[in-house]
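Troubleshooting entry. The earlier prediction with pyridoxal-5'-phosphate gave an output that would not parse, so I re-checked the input for stray whitespace and re-submitted. Clean input:
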Amino acid sequence: MEDSNQLSLQIKENVEVIQEKIFNAAKRSGRDAGDVKLLTVSKKKSVEMMRAAVEAGITLFGENYPEETVGKMDILNEEYPDLAWHMIGHLQSRKARLVAEGFDMMHSLDSVRLANKLGRALDAAERQLPVLLEMNVSGEDSKGGWAAWNEKQWDLLVPEIEQILTVETLVVKGLMAMPPLSADAENTRPYFVQLRQLRNWLGKKFPQIEWEELSMGTSLDFEVAVEEGATFVRIGTAILGARAY
Ligand SMILES: *Cc1c(COP(=O)(O)O)cnc(C)c1O
């Protein structure tokens, strides 16, 4: 009991520090900090740790591995009715049903095939799912998402997105990227700029979509991401501590 209170206080303090940094970064770029949502990334973290996080006031969680998440949802949704769960990791299409049934948003939609699978699972579950399209803005092979680091690639996105927009249970809200991590966040800035510019370009191609969300920035670089327009920052380590693998 003593320990979990202690943990909760520590988490609360971490969140306050981050919120202040978000506030200042937003101010530097003339943005409203209220437009930036803090997603606490809880992959590989235990139910006990997540309980401490909820006691610290956190309700919005980002997860990468659907089977792991479903186990945690089963327990925590019973105890706390107001939690929201966002999928941020690569999803194998055979696991689409898990996301369609239990998650509140998907940041990492990365193929038409997956969109169709999700669409069918959502039809069966009679649900809609807000989604972000994951873009590879760095050109690294290991990164997920549509190839979009070179503006010459952007036209190729149009037919893909047209197909996704035919899936009526998916609600496209914007873009997500996970650029390579660097100890110096300034190295990542050009990738955040690229994602924002792509969003603006898509806004002209698909004016029927609002494209209001940009999910970018982690523990290492969220301040720069906010300066460049992030509306979701995805932060694990700086809130819940290092992950044990
Ligand atoms: C793990 C993860 C994060 C959080 O990374 P931290 O360095 O722990 O803040 C953010 N986004 C994605 C896609 C992740 O997989």
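This one parsed fine. The first strand starts at residue 37 and ends at 41.
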